[in-house]
Amino acid sequence: MSQKNSHKRINDAINILTALGIPKAQQNERSALCLLALLNLTPNKKWGKSENPLMGITPIMDWARTHYQKDYAPNTRETVRRQTMHQFVDAGIALYNPDKPDRPVNSPKAVYQIEATVLKLLQSFGTSAWRNNLTSYLAGRETLASRYAMEREQNRVPVKIAKDKEITLSPGEHSELIRDIIENFGPQFVSGGKLIYAGDTGDKWGYFDAPLLAGLGVTVDPHGKMPDVIIFCPKRNWLVLIESVTSHDPVDGKRHAELSQLFAKSEAGLVYVTAFPNRSLMSRHLAEIAWETEVWVADAPSHLIHFNGERFLGPYKS
After folding, report:
1. Where along the chain do the CATH 1.10.10.1820 domains lie?
2. The CATH number of the domain covering residues in 157-306
3. What CATH number does the domain located at 3-154 have?
4. What is the pLDDT of residues 150-173, one digit of tens each?
5. What are phi and psi of 48, to 5 degrees?
6. Rounded CA gap, 242 and 177, in Å?
7. Is the dihedral of CA 218, 220, 221, 227 positive or negative?
8. For position 39, what pLDDT does the model report?
9. What is the pLDDT of residue 1?
10. What is the pTM of this model?
């Protein structure tokens, strides 16, 4: 493998991304290497031998190190994901989790794959057919990107937040539990409650009624870690802070303190709830649950587990 071949291959990949209409911010070495990795195109391989394996972010970075001597630090993983792969998917160049479209957004098993039409196009790069193939591809590209965007939208989790209002969240168990909290826990235990916030693994602010929260005296620090769901109970003047637990992070002592500080100026009393999808998962976290909090389990929605204190459900004064 020669350095000259590597340099030329990266430049070719940047030129291809430019020709495909990828934004200027992605016309760089990082994005070029991601494209080459998704094609498994090592420096001495011909474009006609391009492939489309399934690859996650870390394998892409490892591939770039092995074949192009580009050593990305582990903390650049999010940059690769957010500043290159998101744009590839949006443009219809790469598919996200084509093997399992409903895989959670934050799953460590998430993978990408070059779209079949794009693969066929890039296999013609450097040949006399390239320009005509590119023209034909670009003529239908917007339709292709729109189709995949629609398919991604169909896999989102619908959540009914009011009688005539619905939002959607990124696919996965976490979002499904958030839906259960809003649609089942809320009506059962926070009668007349108003949803203020629902987190999303793909977009931190899945739903946020900032004016309502501000009216209760709380202005959220964007760097603060929000609970997964916030419901306001006007009847009792309670702010119910709920963590959706599908793998980790129940309301333990540390999280209780963080939420207390984040919502310290609230004019409404604070109620802390940990929600689990089932009792099996709950049993693995029982030792971590903070006292003076509540636990709700989605597979037994009419029950609430109270962790000590003088009330069944309600805020506690410091």
Report:
1. 3-154
2. 3.40.1350.80
3. 1.10.10.1820
4. 666 676 777 887 777 777 777 778
5. -65, -15
6. 11
7. positive
8. 98
9. 46
10. 0.56
